[in-house]
Amino acid sequence: MEIRRLTPSEIEDAIKLSDKTFRKSQHQSMGRAFPLVFTTYNNLSFGAFHDSKLVSFFGLVPFEIKIGSAQISAFSIGSVCTDPDYRGKGIASAILEKIYQYIDEAGASLLFVSGDRGLYLRNNCFHFGTRNTFKIDKATYEIENGENILRKATLGDLFSVFRLWQGKNVRYETSVSEWLTLLKSGGYTSIFNMQQEVYVMEKKGEITGYVVAGIPNENSMKAEPIITEWGGESSCIKSILESICLEFEAFDIRVPWHDDLNKELQKDYAFHSIRNGGTIHIVQIERLINQILPYLEDKSPRVAEKLSMEYEDTRELRLNYKGESVTLTHKEFIETLFSPGDNVFPDLFPVPLPSTEGMEYV
Question: What is the DSSP letter of 216?
Answer without folding.
Answer: P
